[in-house]
Amino acid sequence: MSLETESRSVLMVDLGSIYWNAWHSSANEDVSAAHDRCVRHVRFLREKYPHDYCAIACDSPRSLRKEKYPSYKATRDAKDVASVEQLRRSKGTLAKDGLLLWECEGLEADDILATAATICRGRGMESVLIASADKDLLAMVDDEHCIRVLSTKTDTIYTGKEVFEKFGVWPRQMRDWLVLVGDTSDNIQGVPRVGAKTASELLGKFDNLEALLSVLARDPASVGKPAVVKSLQESREIVRVGKELVTLRTNASIDFEELFKERKVQPLTDVRDAEFEDE
């Protein structure tokens, strides 16, 4: 692969963040509506954000995180047969569109996207856009290597500046911010009495979670308010588990070279032609 070929633009899509939104928003419609909306949304993204290559990251049905910590995502509704079938159809249609689908046993789409973004950074891809609704992927934003995240919920494109303006921390601090604040959608607890503002202030002062915990052990009074200090001292296990859950893996077993291979578009007969409407 020549450097000229590698220094191109890539769009990478978190399929789950699009499909499950489509599934829940079409609850009162025909069962196939989720498939249709999901496929149209991906096609819409490809048209709106020009790119040289595109890949779709999919969650594995099996979750290593959930196997180790059963409470992970435990608040989410169980997936019924119809929803899984429409997800399967969506994958099939996107594959027929000529798109590359990545899936790794036991891992989530976020891990695949983090792995691919890391490879892109190392190989000098000139522009990488990750489309997802998940906050943890904001940790991959890298202005130097033009890696950005597009929110599939708000259409906001996050650079480092946008991440800081929204959360009060830089992309490299997002993992630690999520550990402190928690994430209700994934049922990650977070540290009691540490909300978004307090977490941003703590990371602004100590830079990262490791430094914060080190100072907490040596000089707790310098960390902050007594109630926050006490909560942090009592939440070491919460922090340990949270860190393990929100840390993105960058070693997913994907065939990155597949990204550059030519794929043929196959005829479709079951996708509606209705114009995509942004959810």
Structural classification: alpha/beta
What coarse outline follows from CA principal-axis ratios? globular
**SSE sequence, one letter per element:** HEHHEHHEHEEEHHHHHH
Q: What proportion strand?
A: 5-15%
Give the strand tally.
6
Helix content: 40-55%
Report low-confidence residues grouped into runs of 5 or more.
Answer: 1-5, 270-279
Mean pLDDT: 93
Strand order of the largest sheet: 3-2-1-4-5-6
Largest sheet: 6 strands, mixed
Tally of helical segments? 12
User: How far apart are the first and last residues' alpha carbons, in Å?
Assistant: 38 Å
What radius of gyration results from the CA coordinates?
A: 20 Å
Fold and architecture overview:
With 279 residues, the protein is an alpha/beta fold. Helix content is 44%, strand content 10%. It has twelve helices and six strands. A six-stranded mixed sheet has the order 3-2-1-4-5-6, sandwiched between helices. α2 crosses α3 (33-48) and α8 crosses α9. The longest helix has 16 residues, at 33-48. Residues 1-5 and 270-279 have low confidence and may be disordered.
